[in-house]
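Exam revision sheet. Question 4 asks you to relate a sequence to its structure. Input first:
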Amino acid sequence: MVWVARIVLFVPALIAGWFVSRDDASYWVIALAIALVFIALTAVAGMYFPRDPGRARRPDA
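Answer key, structure tokens:
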């Protein structure tokens, strides 16, 4: 479970590092906020983009 959290927070931590010093107390709060936006955008993309693009072109039987 720890590896899942590390993977989810890796990219947002890099992005937060561009804007906030890692020594700042609010660094992980900002990284968490960016991670939540990242997760929300991933969920929205999963809802709107089909898993099988060819399926939309096939006629129903």
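Marking note for examiners. The chain has a mean pLDDT of 81.
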